[in-house]
Specification:
alpha/beta; 5-stranded parallel sheet; 7 helices; globular
C-alpha cells in the first residue's frame, strides 16, 4: 500500500487532507470532543505541511462483529484514508470468544487494506479497582496477538494506562478509581503518523 503522504500524481493537483475516521467510544483524553482538535494538532505538529481532518463517528462502541458492518458503511460514506478503531470493550463485557473476536479483527483489517484504508487499533482502557477488570485480559491479549501476527498498528492503551496508574500509585496516593492519563493523544498521534508513512 503506497504512503498516504506521497506526492500528488499531477503537479497541478492540490494536496488534500489526510482523512482520519475515529470509531468507538471516546479515547480519553485524546479523541473525545472537544479534544479531537488536540489530536489534529498533535498530528500536524509531527508532519508539518500535512493537513489532517479528524472525524468522530459519534456512536457508542459495539461488539467487533457489529462494528465491522458499521465500518463498511462508514468507509463507503466518508472515504477516509485511515480508521482509528477503539475496539474490544463490548466484546470483553459480553464474554465474546477471543478466537472469534480475533477473526473479526483480522477480516476487518483485510477488508480495509483491500480498500486502501489504513487501520490503527486501540485496545480497551485499564480501569483500576473495579471487579470486572479481569474480563478485559483475554480480549487485550487476543488483540495483541492478532496485531502482531498480521502486522497491524496497535495503540496498547491498556498497558499504557496500567503503567501510568502504577507510576502514580508509587509517587503518591490516588483516590479509588482515578488514573493518571498523560500524553494519550500524543501516543495515538505517533501511531497514526507511523501508519501514514507506511
Amino acid at each position: 500500500m503506497p504512503s498516504l503522504l506521497r506526492p500528488a500524481k499531477s503537479p497541478r493537483a492540490r494536496p488534500r487532507s489526510v482523512r482520519v475516521l475515529v470509531l468507538g467510544p471516546p479515547v480519553t483524553p485524546a479523541v473525545s470532543n472537544p479534544q479531537l482538535e488536540q489530536l489534529k494538532q498533535d498530528l500536524e505538529q509531527r508532519l508539518p505541511g500535512v493537513r489532517f481532518e479528524v472525524r468522530d463517528d459519534g456512536r457508542a462502541s459495539e461488539r467487533a462483529e457489529d462494528e465491522f458492518e458499521h465500518i463498511r458503511a462508514e468507509v463507503s460514506a466518508t472515504d477516509p484514508d485511515l480508521v482509528v478503531w477503539q475496539v474490544g470493550t463490548p466484546d470483553a463485557m459480553a464474554s465474546t470468544d477471543p478466537g472469534e473476536f480475533g477473526d473479526v479483527i483480522g477480516d476487518a483489517a483485510a477488508w480495509l487494506r483491500a480498500h486502501d484504508v489504513r487501520l490503527v487499533l486501540v485496545d480497551p482502557p485499564f480501569v483500576p479497582d473495579v471487579a470486572h477488570e479481569s474480563v478485559y485480559e483475554r480480549i487485550v491479549r487476543e488483540l495483541s496477538d492478532v496485531a502482531k501476527t498480521r502486522n497491524l498498528n496497535l495503540v496498547r492503551r491498556y498497558s499504557l494506562m496500567e503503567h501510568w496508574n502504577d507510576e502514580r500509585e508509587r509517587s503518591r496516593p490516588a483516590p479509588t478509581g482515578k488514573i493518571l492519563k498523560p500524553c494519550l493523544s500524543e501516543v495515538i498521534a505517533e501511531t497514526i503518523v507511523q501508519a501514514s508513512l507506511q
